Amino acid sequence: MLASLRSVLRFRHPRFRSSDRRLARCASLGDLQLLARQKLPRGVFDYIDGGAEGERSLSRNQDGFDRILFRPRVLRSVGEVDTSTTLLGRPLALPLVLAPTGFTRIAHPLGELAVARAAERAEIPYTLSTLATRSIEEVALVSQGDKWFQAYVWRDRAVVREMLDRAAAAGYAALVITVDTPVLGRRERDVRRGFTLPPQVGVGTVLDGIVHPSWTYRFLTSDPIRFANVKQAGLDGESPVSLADYINTQFDPKLSWHDLEWFRGVWPGPIVLKGIQSVEDAVIAAETGIEAVALSNHGGRQLDSSPAPIDLVGPVAQALQGRSEIICDGGIRRGSDIVKAVALGATACMAGRAYLYGLAAGGERGVDFVLQLLRADVRRTMALIGVSSIEQVTEELVGTVAS
Fold this sequence. Notes:
By secondary structure, the chain is an alpha/beta fold. The chain is about 45% helix and about 10% strand. The protein has one domain (about 25-70, about 85-375): Aldolase class I (TIM Barrel, Alpha-Beta Barrel), CATH 3.20.20. It has helices spanning about 1-10, 20-25, 30-40, 40-50, 55-65, 110-120, 135-140, 155-170, 190-195, 205-210, 215-220, 245-250, 260-265, 280-285, 310-320, 335-345, 355-385; strands at about 70, 85, 90, 95-100, 125-130, 145-150, 175-180, 270-275, 290-295, 325-330, 350, 400. The strands form 3 sheets. The protein has an 8-stranded parallel sheet with strand order 4-11-10-9-8-7-6-5. It is globular, with a radius of gyration of 21 Å. The termini are far apart.
């Protein structure tokens, strides 16, 4: 009997960290999302998880991937599967870029520092937001990996120029210009909870903090959450500022394609336009020499009923014919989503919420977990559809949209 037991029993390696034990029970990003919801105050979780108005675009971003079918090929010798590719002339271990997210430290005190380090280990780019809670220089100190900087087109160009000069000096490789925010979208979950950034303390905040003691303790014992990158215009973090009020005073609804000439004049590297939501605008971007377009509806957080990015990938790829690279931003929850986007013509994908769930659930280890999960998903999906390299992932491997 003992011999039989020894032949079938395998003991798990002990996990001494509670965060490691929690992560080990997560089989998907959906599990991490649920874990993040348990660990974060509801207002904080809804800020990360929510979308604009009725959240139709938020739902469609994921549903768009679900409607795409694979056409697997078999007996194709997939013993060695290589997930690496290139984007903007630089190597990536996986067709993925970590998207910019503002106020990352509300998920975990390490915030952007943890995400940048995890991205370096995964050998993929990390995009630092203008509204980050760690500065351009702080992130550069902890990560030698590929880093991009995201900028909004604000009225005060002196503030923008100062940040771009700092990013270039710190070795950031690309500039991502967000162009889908002439005004801020209405995020009704935040309205219902009275959630603001930086968070304001009220009765609801106190009660939520009591039932989430670990988050509350970290929040109270960490440095204040600040606009770390903006050193002018009174946004040095010395006094609380309403994010919505500031954005609505700085974003310029008069922005036009001609404004891109200013960015080209002050930024020495490649430029990505993030927020392209039509074939026509993708073509204009390519004609102006933009190196890459990020098809994005801001994660469903700006205009509700905007198109799902995955639905635009094929038509945009057909229209551009390689003149600009294509990034699909929005709705990535599995590695198979990345493979579908590449098959339709994207060079890579962007993901933001995915790593925020991991950060909230398990800190820096949680971000590592997400990136390892996605890479394993991509490799397995590639093997199952019969390809061994990203170059072999083509349109013939995806089928019609399921009815």
